[in-house]
Design a protein that fits this description.
The protein is mainly beta. The protein has 2 domains: about 30 residues, no CATH class; about 350 residues, 3 Solenoid (Pectate Lyase C-like), CATH 2.160.20.110. It is about 10% helix and about 40% strand. It contains 4 helices and 41 strands. The strands form 5 sheets. It has a 24-stranded parallel beta sheet that branches. A 7-stranded parallel beta sheet has the order 8-11-15-19-24-29-34, with no helix packed on it. The chain has a 6-stranded parallel beta sheet with strand order 6-9-12-16-20-25, with no helix packed on it. The longest helix is centred in the first third of the chain and has 18 residues.
Length: about 400
């Protein structure tokens, strides 16, 4: 009896459910019972109803013009996507840039692979719009120049984007953005990074805009010729603030080389940054920058190494240049010069607040105290993550170090 009753009820329920497909409130919910994750509403490319990107196919469709998916439209990532096994063609280029918005929505694109010999490479080749809230995990990029994990050249805004993996290229390469003429903020790169010519940075290769609230971890390597290599930015022509790097920065060959823990070549300004990686160079090498203006920064590098030669432009904070204001350095930092015994004294020694070697941190170990950073280094640091924000980005966190609000 129960079996016959069940058999009579199920068809009636199915009819009622299917009838509700024309009910606007119910339609999307019914569709999702049968569509295997395909959104019931694909969007229309506006800011209030962006196109939904949910698969490899739809990611490749962005900006093609198919079904009105143009470079000027708005998009949102609605699912994690694995791009393994595909050599990806970037979205937009220098002739037809992406000018819309791409909201990563906190989702992850994994195993993005790009392998070609042309410039303007990354998930996006060239943008004048915005890319935000996106994680790229396990990127593998081998290209020519103007390359970043997220954007090759940015004339817009890139924010809250986090990249990990391996990038190898020629020049103007960054873990997140290759060339920045806009805004890059609240971003990070973790992995292995190498270039062969110039403007090689852990987050941005060549900066003409603003880079703020960013960090890198891993290894940044350069070689051959005309190098500017930095843990966060390779070559800075504008503004860098509130950034840090734990990356080891290494140059072991080349000419006219300039490198530093945060920035390599610097004709702009660098402020409120710190670095903890080991730095190896040939000339113009410092814990924060290779050259230029440095303000209110802290060099916590265990060592700076002159790989070869006799160039004197090595310092705890910067290799050369200025102006330099209110900078500190780890008192135990050592200068390694070939087979000579390591020393705490650098060439042209100037251990003062406004000198290339910064003032040694006192008391010893003070850098592990939030009070030292707040009262002596004059940084604004919240005692915990809940007190930090985009506009006041530092809080006291893991490893007894300042951390950025999004970590």
């Amino acid at each position: 009896m129960k079996t016959r009753l069940l058999h009579s009820i199920v068809p009636v329920l199915m009819i009622l459910v299917l009838a509700q497909c024309n009910n606007p409130w119910m339609k999307g919910r019914v569709d999702h019972l049968f569509d295997d994750g395909i959104p019931s509403d694909p969007g229309n490319g506006t800011s209030t109803n962006p196109f939904k990107v949910y698969s490899r196919t739809t990611l490749q469709k962005v900006g093609t013009g198919i079904d009105d998916w143009e470079l000027s439209k708005d998009y949102i990532l609605t699912a994690n996507i694995n791009m393994s096994g595909l050599n990806f063609t970037p979205i937009g280029d220098n002739t037809f840039p992406f000018t819309g918005t791409f909201n990563g929505n906190g989702k992850t694109i994994s195993n993005l692979t790009i392998n070609n010999s042309s410039g303007y490479q990354g998930l996006f080749g060239y943008i004048g719009g915005m890319v935000q809230k996106l994680t790229l995990n396990g990127v593998n990029i081998t290209v020519s120049d103007r390359v970043g994990g997220v954007v090759g050249l940015n004339n817009g805004t890139v924010e809250e984007c986090y990249v990990s993996g391996t990038i190898a290229a020629g020049m103007q390469i960054g873990g997140v953005v290759g060339v920045n003429s806009g805004i890059v903020k609240n971003c990070s790169f973790s992995g292995t990074f190498s270039g062969t010519t110039s403007a090689i940075g852990g987050v941005v290769g060549n900066n003409f805009g603003t880079v703020s609230n960013c960090y890198s971890t891993g290894t940044v390597t350069g070689g051959i010729s005309n190098m500017q290599v930095g843990g966060v930015v390779g070559l800075n022509n504008a503004t860098i603030q509130n950034c840090y790097s734990s990356s080891n920065v290494i140059i072991t060959s080349g000419v006219a080389v300039v490198n530093g823990g945060i920035v390599g070549g610097n004709s702009g300004t660098v402020s409120n940054c710190y670095s903890t990686g080991n730095i190896t160079g040939l000339r113009a090498t410092g814990g924060i920058t290779g050259s230029g203006s440095v303000n209110n920064c802290v060099a916590l590098n265990p060592s700076i190494t002159r790989d070869s030669g006799t160039e004197p432009e090595f310092g705890r904070v910067t290799g050369m240049g200025g102006p330099l204001t209110n900078n500190y350095a780890l008192s135990s930092m050592v200068f390694i010069d070939g087979a000579a015994p390591p020393t705490n004294t650098f060439p042209g020694w100037d251990n003062s607040l406004n000198g290339k070697d910064g003032l040694g941190i006192s008391p010893v170990g003070g850098e592990s105290s939030m009070i030292w950073w707040r009262d002596t280094a004059n940084w604004t640091i919240a005692p915990n993550k809940s007190g930090a924000s985009d506009t006041s980005p530092w809080y006291w966190g893991a490893g007894n170090r300042p951390r950025l609000w999004f970590e």
